[in-house]
Design a protein that fits this description.
The chain has about 500 residues and is an alpha+beta fold. The strands form four sheets. The chain has a seven-stranded antiparallel β-sheet.
Length: about 500
């Protein structure tokens, strides 16, 4: 196959382009027809306008496909596109960080894949630097092999023999997949999506009548309402479980040369490539459902990715694993990350500040409910106790530590996170002490690394001020040394 000759994408790309544009027009079309009758009786006008718009979308999808060509020439991926204005984009293979490959339900029957090209600089948009929407799987493999050969030739001499080594680090089991899906916490996301979808049709749904029906149902008793609520959550949980299982089925993490490669998915198969040198930080997260069982999920923050596409910059590399097994599994591959390093927790005197921040809003609300709604308002005292317990969890999980060249921050929002950042990867580190913190000899620390086109990292409040000062000196000293080395050069 001659890669240097301009080639078009598979005709499926024209269909996918059209479907994507139609998807973006769904809400405008609904609003157009719902409110159209209010503006007059020109139904024929609305029908003709809709047909014209559909024809324009079809023509645009076809022309976008027809005018899009790609080729590999002189060590570059060369792309030309544009309906009216011809645009050219030449991407040197040296700049390409990874090729992410996915195959959706439309691709797989035809033996096609979608290829996303991630570069060191990135495009800065929602998509990657370049996207080949539908190409033959064999062509994608050829481009990948060419990319690998060019990168190897740039790092090795002609006399050296390069052997590609592939090691499987992790492969999800059926039991782990079921447990992952059952404890994913996606019920809230599903319910939010359903609610957001429903409110789009507030002009069509007779809410007044529905509310009257609800009032009638309430008269049947609390037990009946409880069963309805339980069924709603059960359906949402089932949808969440099925979606998670389809997304992470056959999840495999392997190391090939200097890259981590992830493959996953049942209906839509995806492959992500993460160059090891692009990893900025490693974090493991424990949600409230998994933490009692000692389970965690591990992510890496990568310098690649685009501004709005977090999936390319914050990558899940271990969906579910025993926390005690993380170090054994990853330390041979993620060199220099001390996953079992000891941390210094927040001092006991800091708990009052955590409790105060939890109660400052909760107690006034509880008092208001007790005053206006008696005797049921006294149930709000449970919220006071729960907020105190949650403040204790946040306080208990707050910690930091330095192990050689790695800064470790542990904190809890809703999920408990532990972040590992190498000193040379940290872009900024700040220490803050308010007046009240200074009186208690406490401090807040925040560190940021580059992730995608933004930043990532961690922030922990009300830690031991003396220990945080040591961390700041550790980081500042490294910067001074780096500046001296740069000046000597």
């Amino acid at each position: 196959m001659k890669m240097f000759e301009p080639k078009r994408l598979h005709p499926l790309a024209a269909l996918l382009n059209t479907l994507r544009q139609l998807k973006e027009l769904i809400i405008p079309f609904i609003l157009f027809f719902v409110f159209g009758d209010r503006w007059g009786d020109g139904k024929l006008f609305y029908i003709i306008t809709s047909i014209v718009v559909l024809l324009l979308v079809l023509v645009s999808g076809f022309l976008s496909w027809y005018r899009f060509t790609y080729r590999v020439q002189e060590g570059e991926l060369r792309i030309e596109h544009g309906i009216f204005v011809r645009k050219k984009r030449y991407i040197p293979f040296e700049r390409i960080q990874s090729l992410d490959v996915s195959a959706g339900i439309f691709h797989r029957p035809l033996g096609l894949v979608k290829v996303k090209v991630e570069t060191a600089g990135g495009a800065g948009g929602e998509e990657a630097e370049a996207v080949l929407t539908a190409v033959a799987k064999g062509e994608a493999e050829q481009i990948h092999e060419l990319l690998v050969s060019i990168k190897k030739s740039s790092h090795t001499s002609e006399q050296e023999e390069v052997i590609e080594r592939e090691e499987i680090i992790y492969k999800i089991t059926i039991g782990q997949l079921l447990l992952l899906a059952s404890t994913s916490g996606g019920v809230g996301v599903v319910l939010s999506a359903i609610f957001a979808f429903i409110i789009q049709f507030d002009e069509l749904i007779p809410y007044d009548r529905l509310f009257n029906e609800v009032e009638h149902l309430i008269s049947f008793g609390i037990m009946f309402i409880s069963i309805i609520v339980f069924l709603v959550f059960l359906i949402a949980w089932s949808i969440s479980v099925i979606g998670t299982m389809l997304k992470y089925a056959s999840f495999t993490l392997k190391k090939v040369d200097n890259d981590l490669i992830i493959t996953r998915g049942l209906l839509e198969k995806k492959q992500f490539t993460i160059p090891l040198h692009r990893i900025q930080a490693v974090r493991y997260s424990e949600n409230v459902l998994r933490q009692p069982f000692g389970l965690a999920s591990v992510y890496v923050d990568s310098a690649g990715g685009s501004a709005l596409n977090e999936e390319s910059s914050k990558v899940l590399i271990l969906p579910l694993i025993k926390k005690r097994e993380i170090a054994t599994l990853l330390e041979p591959y993620l060199i220099g990350y001390p996953f079992n390093a000891p941390l210094i927790s927040a001092p006991s005197r800091a708990y009052r500040r955590y409790l105060f921040k939890a109660w400052i809003f909760v107690i006034p609300i509880a008092l208001m409910l007790i005053y206006h709604i008696r005797p049921w308002g006294y149930l709000s005292l449970l919220l006071v106790f729960f907020s105190a317990f949650w403040a204790w969890l946040i306080f208990k999980d707050a910690a930091s530590g330095v192990n050689q060249d790695v800064l470790i921050l542990r904190y809890r929002q809703f999920v408990k996170n532990t972040v590992f950042m190498k000193r040379e990867k940290i872009q900024s580190l700040s220490v803050k002490k308010s007046y009240f913190q200074a009186r208690k000899k406490l401090a807040t620390i925040e560190a940021t690394v580059k992730s995608g086109h933004g930043g990532s990292g961690g922030r922990v409040v009300d830690l031991e001020g003396e220990e945080i000062d040591k961390v700041y000196k550790w980081y500042s000293y490294s910067n001074i040394n780096q500046c001296q080395e740069d000046s000597q050069r």
